[in-house]
């Protein structure tokens, strides 16, 4: 890359920030890296007074709240790599707003993958990327501005015949004993030949939300959200499911943002 890359680390634990900085310097010693306070308030204030960096390494849970609040307030004109202690299933929803994520503890080989991805994206769209305020729009532009085509129906293999189910008629999907079911609004469960991970790639994220490892919910199916132990929540759906649907504290924030978007 021609210009000197400016990177920012926003991490709630300073030792972790220093370790990440050291790994970045090992991989790209010419980068200019700044470590910011691991708080929403401190990071927002810094972004209001400085030119936005090329890339942010952003911890999901900061000292004073969720990092998505920082994004909403600071509106960073930067590519973002999330860092998180949560597993892959808990961060899949974040990929629409970032170029990558790193699981803690961060490994240098995985960090290098994220750095190379950042450099590829920057090279492909160097002129436009500096002016973008929305990372999702960046990803769409790199795809040639082609609107993604989402699945609209499923072919179901019944006991005696084949039939189709329209995605618009599906309230939610769930996985049980390695079998995936689509539950329609009339309460019928239809076995489909897709994993939930594969479904996430084929469903419109504006209409469906990955609640946990077992459930993908449509917005219309969510009847209510109950507070649960330790910041978690229980989602009640229509038609009702025979088991409680639990979501993590991190996903509660994401779900509320998604429902309010």
Sequence-ordered SSE layout with sheet pairings:
Layout: E1 6-10, H1 14-27, E2 32-36, H2 40-49, E3 55-59, E4 61-62, E5 65-66, H3 67-74, E6 79-84, H4 88-91, E7 100-103, H5 108-124, H6 126-129, H7 135-142, E8 153-157, E9 162-166, E10 170-176, E11 179-184, E12 189-192, H8 196-202, E13 208-210, E14 215-218, E15 222-227, E16 233-237, E17 245-247, H9 249-259
Parallel strand pairs: 1-2, 1-3, 3-6, 6-7
Antiparallel strand pairs: 4-5, 8-9, 10-11, 10-14, 11-12, 13-14, 15-16, 16-17
Helix pairs in contact: 2-3
- Strand line-up of the largest beta sheet: 2-1-3-6-7
Broad shape: elongated
Radius of gyration from the CA trace?
A: 20 Å
**Which stretches are low in confidence, meaning pLDDT under 50 for 5 or more residues running?**
127-134
| Total DSSP helices | 9
Report the β-strand fraction as a percent range. 25-35%
What is the assigned CATH homologous superfamily of the largest domain? Response regulator
- Helix fraction, binned, reads 25-40%
Report the major sheet. 5 strands, parallel
Which architecture of the largest domain would the CATH scheme give at its second level? Answer: 3-Layer(aba) Sandwich
What is the top-level CATH class of the largest domain?
Alpha Beta
Find the count of extended strands (DSSP E, 2+ residues). Answer: 17
Distance between the termini: 36 Å
- Spell out the helices and strands N to C: EHEHEEEHEHEHHHEEEEEHEEEEEH
Q: Strand pairing plus helix content: what structural class?
A: alpha/beta
Taking all residues together, what is the mean pLDDT? 84
Q: Which topology of the largest domain does CATH recognise?
A: Rossmann fold
What count of domains describes the coordinates? 2
């Amino acid at each position: 890359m021609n210009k000197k890359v400016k990177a920012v680390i926003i991490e709630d634990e300073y030792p972790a920030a220093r370790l990440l900085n050291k790994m970045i310097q090992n991989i790209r010693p010419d980068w200019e890296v700044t470590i910011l306070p691991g708080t929403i308030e401190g990071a927002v204030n810094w972004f209001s007074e400085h030119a936005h960096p090329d890339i942010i390494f952003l911890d999901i849970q900061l000292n004073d709240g969720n990092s998505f609040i920082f994004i909403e307030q600071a509106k960073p004109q930067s590519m973002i790599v999330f860092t998180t202690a949560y597993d892959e299933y808990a961060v899949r929803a974040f990929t629409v707003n970032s170029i990558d994520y790193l699981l803690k503890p961060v490994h240098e080989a995985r960090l290098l993958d994220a750095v190379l991805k950042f450099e590829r994206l920057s090279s492909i769209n160097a002129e436009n990327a500096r002016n973008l305020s929305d990372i999702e729009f960046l990803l769409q532009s790199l795809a040639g501005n082609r609107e993604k085509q989402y699945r609209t129906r499923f072919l179901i293999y019944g006991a005696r015949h084949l039939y189709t189910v329209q995605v618009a008629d599906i309230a939610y999907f769930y996985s049980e004993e390695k079998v995936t079911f689509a539950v329609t609004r009339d309460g019928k469960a239809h076995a489909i030949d897709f994993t939930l991970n594969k479904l996430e790639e084929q469903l419109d994220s504006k209409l469906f939300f990955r609640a946990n490892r077992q459930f993908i919910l449509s917005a219309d199916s969510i009847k209510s959200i109950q507070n649960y132990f330790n910041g978690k929540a229980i989602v009640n759906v229509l038609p009702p499911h025979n088991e409680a649907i639990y979501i993590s504290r991190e996903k509660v924030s994401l779900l509320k943002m998604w429902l309010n978007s």
